[in-house]
Amino acid sequence: MTLQARKPVESGGTGGHWLAVRPRLILASAFMLFLELALIRWTGSNIVHLSYFTNFVLLGSFLGIGLGFLRVGRTTAQPYYSPVVLFGLVMVVLAFPVTVDRDTDGVLYWTSLSTVGPPAWISLPIVFCAAALVLMGPAELVGRCFPELPRLEAYRYDLIGSLTGIAVFTGLSFLSAPPVFWGILAAAAYAVLLVPRPRAAYIGLVAVPSLAVVGLLLAETLTAGALWSPYYKVTHRQFEQLGVPVTDISVNGIPHQQAVPAHARLQWEAQYGLPYERAAARPDDVLIIGAGSGTDVSIALSKGARHVDAVEIDPKLRELGGSTHPDKPYDDPRVTTHVTDGRAFLEQTDRSYDLILFALPDSLTLVSGASSLRLESYLFTEEAMRAARERLKPGGAFSMYNYYRESWLVDRLATTAQRAFGHAPCVDVVSTTGQQAVITAGATPEAQRCGAPWAGAAAGTPPPADDDRPFLYLKDRTIPSLYLVTLGLILAVSLLAVRVVAGPYRRMRPYADLFLLGVAFLLLETKSVTGFALLFGTTWVVNAIVFAGVLVAVLAAVEVTRRFRTPPLPVMYGVLFAGLLLAWLVPNAWLLSLPVPVRAVAAVIVAFLPIFAANVVFAKRFADTADATTSFGANLLGAMVGGCLEYLALVIGYQGLLVVAGVLYLGAFLLLPRRALA
């Protein structure tokens, strides 16, 4: 570690701020991460495109954070632009919300019936650029603290602040707090962090926009009548249809579910009764995954079920089912509710069932931090159906139904069931319009009663999805052109923005290895998020724990580097490559076979060993850089590029991301300056 890395750079102290540098750095870092999470969550609830582009705002945030660090030293002006742009973004999103139709190709599937609002080519660039500008402000405030502290101490407080931001946002999610609380916290952070000089500019550019944001979000909270679950903005309306009470439930502006009495649902749509007709066994014990508003539970009870395990991932949908469903199925003593991920429940339960039902488990959103993983993606893999088969009693049956929209999708799922159960399932296409279908497979051929034999999959049907590539709706092994064009534009805009905001690229040239470290680390993080989602569920709690765990591993690497003499960089790179090899060799199937406590320990070791080693490498290299803010900014811009490369998983699978990360880490090692090698 150089003398410059060990001693604070004397660059003006606190810069005239009333708050000391360490608490200011923690607060600014916490605000930066909290604001990023809030923008991802809130914009996606109003612009439906972002329900399937959750990392779109993440990429804009990484760009803005990187630019904020690169701006340090180029200007002394306060980043008053950040609250102004945030106000503009909130106003535009509320004035022009977006819903889309169901005809999108590739991995994007929608269920709303009409297009309302600006097209994607207008709304997505606005959100991306606005997110970058909003996050650039807090990042600039964080970056200005770095020269006032030793490198690794500054990085340490930055990580502590980031963990605090995650904790605050997770707490608000647990409390189902509406967005007005996010706005209040953002306004308070701006008020504390931005220096109120000159006073007129502070009032006009900070106080007024911040209070306006709070006012707009308060108006949304009071008028929308929405429930804010950890996944969606949930709205509902009650009415009568043919004399029957009905509750329509929408999430993020998309029609999603209906709470309808069992007798009416069976009369209106035959698919709901077919699983009980196709299963040979009496449905005494039933497992329903995707219980939602309770209609499927009510039907199971009407069919004579003696016990129903109702699994629903979203607590607010379960809450609405309990309060609005006319049959009150969740009040029935025969029903046990489980608010958790369906695949995780299948892997962890020790109960057996006469009927396992996947009841339209269509999440309409992605796992935050993973580019293409939906909440229900791991339910539709061959491994998931094998897990369902193992939970059946002798003579039991598995069934699933939905509006599959494409005939090849029905054939793909039927083929998956055939492979998992070892024989052809019953396939009932109830309606060719929208491919409304029911697929039922008995534990044995005798456990199912088909109306007619399945003719088999049509030519060109894609193979079953698996746990490595759980992309049910992606027909071809490719990246859809929509993504390629969008990501290309993002990178082009980012290159231009870096040149305009941060100056010549040669400033970052000495830190090319740190740039590659950022690219590779984002891929490692994605692999960790998706891996833990498979092993423990795609719930928001698991997601928050994994992100916090990544930051804890990074913080541990920093503390070890600060306090102890660590091996030289070549040795640490060797440990990193060994960790990547271990993660490559350990199969998910083996981890899933372990008891949950043992699985947790093994998963942490496998996932976090390379993350820890990678961050010891980064900490040692970062401590020895000549320019803290430029080198850190280069690393953050690398993370943005890594967010774009996440989409390679659509082609090579999530396990393949480890190979890409390994190649990038090898490139970073080859770009190490000679003095760092020494």
Can you tell me about this structure?
- Keywords: Membrane, Polyamine biosynthesis, Transmembrane, Transmembrane helix.
- The chain crosses the membrane at residues 25-44, 50-73, 80-100, 120-142, 154-174, 180-196, 203-228, 482-502, 514-534, 540-558, 570-592, 598-618, 630-648, 654-672.
- This is Spermidine synthase.
- Helices cover 56% and strands 11% of the residues.
- It is an alpha/beta fold.
- It has 3 domains: 1-230, Up-down Bundle (Growth Hormone, Chain: A), CATH 1.20.1250; 233-362 and 382-447, 3-Layer(aba) Sandwich (Rossmann fold); 508-678, Growth Hormone, Chain: A (Up-down Bundle).
- A 7-stranded mixed sheet has the order 7-6-5-8-9-11-10, sandwiched between helices.
- Strand 5 (285-289), helix 11 (295-302) and strand 6 (307-312) form a beta-alpha-beta unit.
- Mean pLDDT is 89; it is low at 1-14 and 100-114.
Name of the CATH architecture of the largest domain: Up-down Bundle
Mind telling me the CATH class of the largest domain?
Mainly Alpha
Oligomer: single chain
The CATH topology of the largest domain: Growth Hormone, Chain: A
Give the overall pLDDT as a whole number: 89
What value does the Rg take, in angstroms? 26 Å
Task: Report, as a whole number of angstroms, the end-to-end distance.
Answer: 12 Å
Q: How many structural domains in the coordinates?
A: 3
Number of alpha- plus pi-helical segments: 24
Major β-sheet strand ordering: 7-6-5-8-9-11-10
| Proportion in β-strands | 5-15%
Structural class: alpha/beta
Q: Helical residue percent?
A: 55-70%
As residue ranges, the low-confidence spans are: 1-14, 100-114
**Biggest sheet character:** 7 strands, mixed
- Beta strands, count: 11
> Which outline best applies?
globular
